[in-house]
Amino acid sequence: MSDAAASIRRALAGADARTEPYRHWLLAEVLPGEAVSAILALPFPPPEIGETAGRRETHNSTRRFFAPEEQARHPVCGTLAAAWQAPDTIAAIEAMCGVDLGGSLLRIEYCQDRDGFWLEPHTDIGAKFFTMLVYLADPPAGEDWGTDIFASPDEYVGSAPARRNAGLIFIPGENTWHGFRQRPISGVRRSLIVNYVTPDWRSRHELAFPDKPVA
Asked: How many domains does the chain have?
């Protein structure tokens, strides 16, 4: 598999910086193409949606993370965890975003959203120092699968482009409102959510390297 860390850094270097309604970055070709294909081939069935109440944690028991167990079973999980943990990747993120990730812990979630899924506007502020989304598949014609960006909980601004291998980054703050308005999802909306979180993150089973903070 091509150098995933180098691919991430190239995407960071070419990111499109935006300032409204808050600072965020749009990226293209985040991962090597074979890595995207390998993720899509993982033997993880999409979970039933049911009622989410607009929160992912409503169905915590069905969520998937690139934790050590999955890294041992599936090479692509280990490859990508190592890429986002790599010192050069951390340095590139810190330089672009003006954030200090030292001492934080890497968390990578693999999301497979089906029709009926939605997320209420929220900011990620608190335990998350960094949020990155990588979209893994193009939506069907006429559908918009991008993360919704809001100026306030009630003021929708637009959606991030959700093309295959495109990405969105922001540094959680008081105004980084984002979510996913309920709308049709034909098939499965697949994405990765990459966070660097506080050392005291309680759900240790979600972490890529529970005992290895970012240097």
From this structure: 1
Alpha carbon distances (Å) from 78 to 65, 81, 110, 173: 11, 5, 13, 30
pLDDT per residue over 62-113, tens digit each? Answer: 799 999 999 999 999 999 999 999 999 999 999 999 999 999 999 999 999 9
Is 8 within a domain?
yes
* pLDDT tens per residue across span 137-158: 999 999 999 999 999 999 999 9
H/E stretch holding 97: helix 87-97
The CB-side HSE value for 106 (13 A sphere, CA atoms) comes to 23
Domain span holding position 170? 4-44+85-206
Q: How far is CA 106 from CA 1, 128, 132, 200, 209, in A?
A: 21, 10, 11, 12, 7
Any domain includes 164: yes
Distances from the Cα of 83 to the Cα of 9, 78, 80, 178, angstroms: 10, 9, 5, 26
Residue 94 lies in a domain: yes
- Residue ranges with strand state E in 22-113: 24-27, 64-65, 105-113
Pairwise CA distance, residues 186 & 32, whole Å: 26
Task: Report yes or no on 64 lying in a domain.
Answer: no
pTM of model > 0.85: yes
Q: What is the CATH number of the domain that holds 90?
A: 2.60.120.620
Task: Name the DSSP letter for residue 122.
Answer: E
